[in-house]
Design a protein that fits this description.
By secondary structure, the protein is an all-alpha fold. The termini are far apart. The longest helix is centred in the N-terminal third of the chain and has 36 residues. The structure holds beta-D-glucopyranose. The site of beta-D-glucopyranose has 14 residues, from helix 6, helix 13, helix 17 and helix 18.
């Protein structure tokens, strides 16, 4: 190999390595998301005991985070379009740290609730900005799995939270459980301090020289100019000004529908009834010992991580659509089986429930879990990417809040069996939605995806003129 070629190859590898390091640090935002939403299930018993919480107060402590996340997602996308992905993520890391510390030392329930809402704000900000940051630095052929690092981090965060709860349960150490999240927040903040802004946001703001320098650092040298030209050309075709009202424009609407639909379906198919309440479901199914139920829950969390890794291997090969359709079909089958096993209970109900729950989580983990966050980070035009992604994330958190608040009541009123059938029906609707509305984005550059929507819009306009 000639010296020049070796040098190019070395640059390429260095560039790629940099993207992976950047992606790993940014993905820590996902770890904090998973940890801070998952940790409360184990901490709650002790918080309740110490403060003598009523059931309503208990529900507010749990859902405070979801409320905060909804608010964070509302402002997070617009803020990232205005100030840049990196700056918003730096502030996010600081809020994560403050929220974790404040909730760990909270002297009273009101302080605890406010701290949980603050933590939620950080989760909402992270969920709007980490996927966009990752999709805007990733090369197209690896974007699927690089953005899915976010979901992987979420699932790892959930398992770490379950294990931390388990470790501190003996000493009733709920303050340690909540405070533990300060450490990853520090690492996340330090990482973001050293990472660059995304080249696409820089070009959008006219900072072409800086964008060029960043791209040189994160790509093979040869491609940089071509990529910059592609981004500029795509921007030139976008007439949106970056306002909320742009979301309602005709040419943006189909992408908006895909994002909002997936946002709602990701939640109304019931994933967080399992993530937040698995020990409770297992006890209803006949798991007598609490620790056995908690251990089985850790097992469910591990399956979630493992299958997310499988999805990451497949997403750039098989594509987004096949994973979505196969995974949601699995969710329909396992929810149906869960509903049936609660309706006609046998002596083996506890074990059947564990197997169904694991199958259900595995199916979610190869489909709606990673692919929702991936698609909403890649299907919107650059000028409105932040606000559009933020709107989808807002719908996701609001739906999460509604499902989490209604689950226990539904089980009480309708019974476990009908409740799972209901989530099964929602899964059928989401399969149909994915089949008819979700486009394949595998292997395309973000600019090619923008061109795809534009071409579709023009074709529809032509058709309606005829
Ligand atoms: C969802 C969360 C869920 C997690 C479980 C994420 O994609 O947005 O609501 O708790 O997956 O792995």
């Amino acid at each position: 190999m000639a010296d020049k070629e070796i040098a190019t190859l070395r640059d390429a590898l260095r560039g790629t390595k940099f993207v992976y390091i950047a992606a790993s640090f940014a993905a820590l935002g996902g770890l904090l998301f998973g940890y801070d939403t998952g940790v409360i299930s184990g901490a709650l018993i002790f918080i309740k005991r110490e403060f003598g919480l009523t059931t309503v107060a208990e529900e507010i402590v749990v859902s405070g985070v979801l409320l905060g996340a909804t608010l964070g997602a509302i402002v997070g996308g617009k803020a990232a379009d205005l100030f840049g992905r990196r700056r918003v993520l730096l502030v996010t890391a600081a809020i994560f740290g403050i929220g974790a510390l404040a909730s760990a030392v909270a002297p009273s329930p009101p302080v605890l609730i406010v701290s949980r809402v603050v933590l939620g704000l950080a989760i909402g900000l992270a969920s709007t900005n980490v996927p966009v940051y990752l999709s805007e630095v990733a090369p197209p052929h690896a974007r699927g799995w690089i953005v899915s690092l976010f979901q992987l981090a979420v699932t790892v965060g959930i398992v770490v939270a379950y294990l931390t709860d388990y470790a501190f349960a003996g000493v009733e150490g709920w303050r340690w459980m909540l405070g533990f999240a300060v450490a990853p927040a520090l690492v996340f903040g330090t990482g973001m301090f050293f990472l660059p802004e995304t080249p696409r946001w820089l070009i959008r703001g006219g900072h072409h020289d800086v964008a060029h320098r960043v791209l040189v650092r994160i790509r093979e040298l040869g491609d940089v100019n071509a990529e910059i030209e592609e981004i500029k050309a795509s921007l030139a075709q976008q007439t949106e000004g970056g306002h909320w009202t742009d979301l309602l424009r005709r040419q943006v609407r189909p992408a908006l529908v895909v994002g909002l639909g997936l946002a709602v379906f990701q939640q109304v198919t019931g994933i967080n009834t399992v993530i937040y309440y698995a020990p409770k479901i297992l006890q209803t199914a006949g798991f007598n010992s609490a620790s056995g139920a908690i251990l089985a829950t850790v097992g469910v969390g591990v399956v979630n991580v493992g299958m997310t890794i499988v999805a990451m291997f497949l997403v750039d090969r098989a594509g987004r659509r096949p994973l979505l359709l196969v995974g949601i079909a699995g969710m329909i089958i396992t929810l149906g089986a869960l509903g049936l096993s609660f309706r006609y209970p046998s002596g083996q109900l506890a074990w059947i429930a564990v197997i169904c729950l694991m199958g259900y989580v595995a199916s979610f983990a190869i489909s709606l879990g990673p692919i929702f966050w991936l698609l909403i980070a890649e299907i919107y035009p650059l000028r409105i990417r932040g606000v559009a992604e933020g709107t989808a994330a807002t719908f996701n958190w609001a739906s999460n809040l509604i499902v989490s608040l209604t689950f226990l009541t539904l089980v009480e009123k309708l019974g476990a069996s009908s409740t799972f059938f209901l989530y099964g029906l929602a899964s059928v609707a989401s399969w149909l939605f994915a089949y008819y509305f979700v486009p394949e984005t595998k292997g395309r550059t973000l600019e090619q995806i923008e061109a795809f929507w534009r071409a579709r819009h023009r074709a529809r306009q032509r058709a309606s003129w005829r």
